[in-house]
Amino acid sequence: MTRNVLITGGNSGIGYEMALALAQQGDRVIIAARGEQKSQEAVARIRAAVPNAQIESLPLDLADFASVDRFAAAALKKMPVIDVLILNAGLYTLKLGKLANGYESMMGVMHFGHFRLVQHLLPAVQAAAQGRIVVTSSMMHQLGRIDEASFTDPSRHRSGMHAYGQAKLANLLFTRELARRLKNTGVTVNAFHPGAVATDIYRQLPGFLQPLIRLTMLTPAQGADTAVWLATAPELAKVSGEYFIKRKQKAGSALSRDAELARQLWQISEAAMPA
Ligand SMILES: NC(=O)c1ccc[n+]([C@@H]2O[C@H](COP(=O)([O-])OP(=O)(O)OC[C@H]3O[C@@H](n4cnc5c(N)ncnc54)[C@H](OP(=O)(O)O)[C@@H]3O)[C@@H](O)[C@H]2O)c1
Questions:
Q1: Which mutation among 98, 201, 217 tests ligand 1's pocket best, with the greatest number of atoms within 8 A of CB?
Q2: Contact between 22 and 45 (Cβ < 8 Å)
Q3: Is the CB of 218 under 6 A from ligand 1?
Q4: What secondary structure letter does DSSP report for 95?
Q5: Which of 150, 151, 157, 180 has its C-alpha lying 20 to 30 A from 233's C-alpha?
Q6: What is the pLDDT along the chain (275 residues), one digit of tens a residue?
Q7: Whose CA is nearest to atom 42 of ligand 1?
Q8: CATH class, 4-272 region
Q9: SS3 sequence, 40-109?
Q10: Where are the domains of the chain?
Q11: Distance CA 201, CA 11 (A)
Q12: DSSP letter (8 states) at residue 3
């Protein structure tokens, strides 16, 4: 069966390897990210590696709700049914900052941008025979706390690491609450931690650390493995709302399992969406 797959952050790092692996399996893949040239290069590399690959890119800036809306409309024209939606795009910044839409950068892109995207794309995932949503979270969610005031006031965070942790905790809470809402619909949603993976996400770390990162961390292909498995493994057809590391189910932090917190975050996020 050829799956229709959409991957945010599919032009680089872990997302690129997911796109390559799924294209190799014969799936039809759309990769979504900001850098158009980078995306076209990624598409060209996948086409070179996989003869007859069905792969294309569409521009998406998760920092901008209007861009998310435009992207969703274009994506739905190309893919009215989505078998696999992978919410993977992300960033880590040492310096805390705000997006033009007022949100703290990491929470704004990784949580609110993806929340908006799912509002548009969920019906297309529900139209699939067995739709799956896969969310790239991180072990760093353990550092995170949900502090609503910090969503628009980055100065409340002690460091970029704590803001990143909150956004990754939000990814997990989103996964749990969406799974609860989709119970008995046939659509599953699961999250994973890819491991410490040598990718561009560490580009802001000092230059002398870069060779060490490449030497000691996992390769992007290794980082993508659990996501590809979550997206395709027949034995996971009914597994939903869970968190995985190296294909093993993990509990995650106590906060990440707090159903009431997940519900509250969902309500805040819904209220934050533009009309
Ligand atoms: N590497 C690790 O050790 C590690 C560990 C745990 C979790 N993760 C998570 O893994 C995911 C992938 O990261 P990676 O390590 O593969 O890093 P990466 O190579 O830097 O990839 C990040 C991707 O996100 C896209 N992106 C960033 N900002 C975006 C925006 N505003 N709108 C749309 N796309 C955006 C980037 O493309 P453009 O810049 O072209 O938009 C790129 O495709 C992230 O969610 C990250 O938090 C990584």
A1: 201
A2: no
A3: no
A4: S
A5: 180
A6: 899 999 999 999 999 999 999 999 999 999 999 999 999 999 999 999 999 999 999 999 999 999 999 999 999 999 999 999 999 999 999 999 999 999 999 999 999 999 999 999 999 999 999 999 999 999 999 999 999 999 999 999 999 999 999 999 999 999 999 999 999 999 999 999 999 999 998 888 888 888 888 888 999 999 999 999 999 999 999 999 999 999 999 999 999 999 999 999 999 999 999 98
A7: 9
A8: alpha beta
A9: HHHHHHHHHHCCCCEEEEEECCCCCHHHHHHHHHHHHHHCCCCCEEEECCCCCCCCCCECCCCCEHHHHH
A10: 4-272
A11: 13
A12: P
Q: Which residues contact 181 (CB under 8 A, 6 or more apart)?
A: none
CA of 184 to the centre of ligand 1 (A): 31
CB 190 within 8 A of CB 238: no
CB 138 within 8 A of CB 92: no
State the pTM of this model: 0.98
